[in-house]
Amino acid sequence: MTRFLRHFLLDHFAVRRAFPPLAMAAIKSAIAQGERRHDAELRFVVEASLPLGYLVAGKTARDRAIDAFAQLRVWDTEHNSGVLIYVQLADRRVEIVADRGINAKVGDEPWRAICATMQQAFGARRFEDGAVAGIAAISDLLATHFPAAPGKANELPDEPVAL
Q1: Rounded CA gap, 89 and 105, in Å?
Q2: What ranges make up the beta strands (E) of 18-162?
Q3: Nearest C-alpha neighbor of 87 from the set 130, 124, 57
Q4: Residue 40 half-sphere exposure, CB side, CA atoms within 13 Å?
Q5: CA atoms within 13 A on the CB side of 2
Q6: What CATH number did the domain enclosing 83 receive?
Q7: With contact defined as beta carbons under 8 Å apart, do 44 and 27 qualify?
Q8: How many beta carbons lie within 10 A of that of residue 22, not counting itself?
Q9: Which residues of the chain have pLDDT under 50?
């Protein structure tokens, strides 16, 4: 019951309070800078709460992140190198979903560590700092395994998405 209440009390204004326009611009800039260093594509999604259908079905933030990964076509990159960062405020969850090309080289542990670091910053209400630091850590990891190819095209928008 407490979970349902948290989800009903948070609305799209919670996203704007946590991630105002200047924070969203900083996130976009961090994504663009990071993508210059690696051959992957990043998307950042933030959502106040899960849709009612997800709550009733007992679905998790991870389930929603996987659906957003498909909905935003993060999987649709030439080298299967898309990464989605999903932030869900009501459950205070951060989920990272990586395409199969990346998962073949990067295990789950680095993603869990990055999520934990971001969640810690968000818990201290440092949303912009946590997001930018998480994007930087992901970019460092991707630059190691997938260095930028000459003439790399930007296949996905860098703009963060508020669902």
Answers
A1: 30
A2: 41-47, 82-88, 93-98, 161-162
A3: 130
A4: 32
A5: 1
A6: 3.10.310.50
A7: yes
A8: 9
A9: none
User: And the tokens for 74?
Assistant: 């993060």
How many domains would you assign to the chain?
1
Residues 150-154: contacts with CB under 8 Å, at least 24 apart: 152/35, 152/39, 154/32, 154/35, 154/41
Tell me: the pLDDT tens digits for 29-51? 999 999 999 999 999 999 999 99
Give phi and psi for 95, each to the nearest 5.
-125, 140
Which pLDDT score is estimated for 1?
Answer: 66
Asked if 75 and 99 count as a contact pair (C-beta separation under 8 A), the reply is yes
Containing structural domain, residue 150: 2-162
Tell me which DSSP letter residue 77 carries.
Answer: S
